[in-house]
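Dear colleague,

Thank you for sharing your sequence with our group. We've completed the structure prediction you requested, and as agreed, I am returning the results in plain text so they can be pasted directly into your records. Please verify that the sequence below matches your submission; if there's any discrepancy, let me know and we will rerun it promptly.
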Amino acid sequence: MEGNYTISAFSENSSGILHRITVLFTRRKMNIESLTVSETEKKGISRFTIVVKEHKDRVVQVAKQIRRIIEVTDVYVSENRELLFTEVAYFKIHCENIPVRLKMEELAHRYGAHLVHGDSDFLVFEKTGREDEINALFLLLEPFGMLEFIRSGRIAVRKEPPEELL
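Please find the predicted structure tokens below.
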């Protein structure tokens, strides 16, 4: 059954790893929904958090291929229920008059967003949360005149230690 899966891969921090990992998805015609790379608590180790919407057997297959890359030390495949995860988004919205500005601020606040910058003709809100929460706020703010929208990739940690290492 097709679903959202998160692959967490840990590797030595060396050039070319990202390319070698993404090529494995390209060869299988798998679309990466979200990709985040960052340093970990261990010096010289990077964490790749890759979200795909695919059948589990195909995800496990590509994760095993990632594990074969020499610099990769660990790879885990997780379902959403096994993770704590979030994203960050910025919404830059056109706004020139005070009543509309106040309405947008109140709406954003109700949905857990924070005003991070205001100018005479636009506001920038920051929202941290799950993909569905960010999408919902986008739909509510879009009619006001979305100038820019950007979201980060998923960051995630497992709730429990993994049962099986690939």
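Summary note from our side: The helical segments are 17-27, 56-67, 98-110, 131-141.

Kind regards,
the structure core
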